[in-house]
Amino acid sequence: MRRPAEDAVAVSRAIDVAFERRAERARLLAGGAVAAREPLRFAAGLYRVQGRLAAALEGLHGRRALTGRLTEDVAGVVEASGELLRFAAENGPAGLAGVARARSGEAKSLCGSRLLAFWDADRPTEPDYLSRALLRPYVEILAKLGIAPDRPLRAGHCPFCGGAPWVAARRSAAEGDGASRFLACAVCGGEWSFARIRCPACSEHNPERLPCFRSDTYPAVRIEACETCRRYVKSIDLTLDARAIPEVDDLLSLSMDLWAESEGFDRIEPGLAGI
Ligand SMILES: [Zn+2]
Ligand SMILES: [Zn+2]
Asked: Mean per-residue pLDDT for 157-173?
């Protein structure tokens, strides 16, 4: 039987590997992409910083156990957040960098309040991508430790942490008819199976109200939209390329998001580029 300290090391390594795998995919794609090079380079760096933040939180967990209640755990997240704030301030897209610079000088209590506001918001009026990026390593550590986050769950959201779906994926179905659909969580990085013909935002299930849009430029990508609530999720077909990591590969086809926006559709949860 392994001792707790060994388990902790195993958890930490698994999370390092997950963030490193995403960083490596982003680095690889950035080499071949022209339009998406900057967002992919930023993503690669962000994943590496998030991996270190996760390791730091994991270290804190050894001294004072994480509870899954953010009101109790937030001080640890704030304490470990300096490197991510600096990275976003220096390397982020203009909007995010400005927010990160402003927050770098804030009192720790205010930084904590912002994370709690993000955590508790049912549907935020203003997106807060910086809090989302800061909380991801925390929630991912909770997932690996099997500690349920204390956050209300909602239909169409992550069954583990209540996060919104930022991208969808299609994989070969085990029993063979077509592909099954998964939604990926913007907060914990987990994924869950979801009906193919259902809007994650409003639960519409009339196929005539759920159009799919594709482009010859990105054969693995489609925009899965809903005429009822005018929202959409971008879906990546992993049956065409199993190496794809949906939240990373998403960044290659930002022009499809711009097109969807021009058609009056809102993405349910923007991806790493904030679009
Ligand atoms: Zn989640
Ligand atoms: Zn809908």
From this structure: 93
